Amino acid sequence: MSNTVGFVSLGCAKNRVDCEMMMSKVREGGFKLIEDAAMADVAVINTCGFIESAKQESINEILELSKLKEEGKIKKIVVTGCLAQRYNAQIKQLIPEADVVLGLGANGDICDAINKALFGEDIESFPDILNMPLDGKRVQSTQPHYAYLRVADGCDNCCTYCAIPLIRGKFRSRKMENILEEAQRLVNNGVKELNVIAQDTTRYGEDIYSELMLPTLLKELCKIEGLEWVRVLYCYPDRITDELIKVIKEEDKIVKYIDLPLQHCNGEVLKNMNRHGDKESLTALINKLRTEIPDITLRTTLIAGFPGETEEQFTELSQFVSDMKFERLGCFAYSLEEDTKAAVMECQVDEDVKQERARIINEQQAIIMSDNCERYIGKTLDVLVDGYDRYAECYFGRSVLDAPEVDPCVFFTISDRKPKAGDIVKVNITDYLDCDLVGEMEA
Fold this sequence. Notes:
By secondary structure, the protein is of the alpha/beta class. It contains 14 helices and 19 strands. The protein folds into 3 domains: 4-131, 3-Layer(aba) Sandwich (Rossmann fold); 146-371, Alpha-Beta Horseshoe (pyruvate-formate lyase- activating enzyme); 380-441, CATH 2.40.50.140.
């Protein structure tokens, strides 16, 4: 009987894609995949090593599964992903419970590593990050009607707070024909919504085609029959071109939504982050997007308490949030990451101050989002059905306003016809709860 393998994937959607590719390798290697890693013979933890809280979550997950191994319920533990890559020299000493530790460049070798572990070997493998496969089959771990489409990996932006270039290497685009083939395969399997991702999607193609090719790729994706929604995430503000705006505006399948991580608005703070722009240039970009695409939803992320951030600079950020009224926003306290340039900057901000500043911005945003919800009452939205909530006793899904896993939902009741997951239905909005819209499905 085949040994069972269960995966736990932590962190971002890009990490999820890595995991789905490893799952396919494992299944093709003759193992049986099961959903619950705690019930498997072999538990694979695909870790995140981006910021301190994510690292701690990964370590806690490994330790929890290690208890099951001690009790004889799990045979072997495999640690993969960004934490394994980032701390390859220390992780086996820190977590001796791990039987296999694989860097990202060894993702394609996971079956061989599991087989050796089952025969008693301890495996540590950290080949060149460029060996990490970007193309290949996947076992979809999201719901069947939506998926993430990774167009590139790695990053050359080298923001001073960020360890991604250290972990995942230089920016590497996938060939467009491979991306389109994968997209077609996903749609053939029932996917209605593709979420385009990379560390920087707007840079797509620059390294292999010598020009920014995201607009061209999006137009090609929109030709796929059966695909309903295309959503673009992780857009770097410097590379929001007129051509990209035009494509998002004119292509019906592209939802009018851009994820635009700005991190700050103060020019000096942005310069210290090794990012460009200031409040005036970012305000101009946002106004341009809203003028060209009047119904656009803008999502951003911000960092509070970056080294050297003064009270005046934080006040400027707070005012910027009030003025811009982003439809979606998350603010995080700066996390000091070793081996980054920001880690050794002078004037590190006190931890309590960082957390308080992040709290203030997030509370501001909660009020803005409540006001945004108010303006949808009485309107009708197309909603992609995600399922039925038996506790709330109603259905739920997402409108074009909402990316999966990070944004609010739409909860709705029905009169007669029962929708199924993956249907796109019309919902009349009647109310909201926190930041979730509430409504009734049209008969």
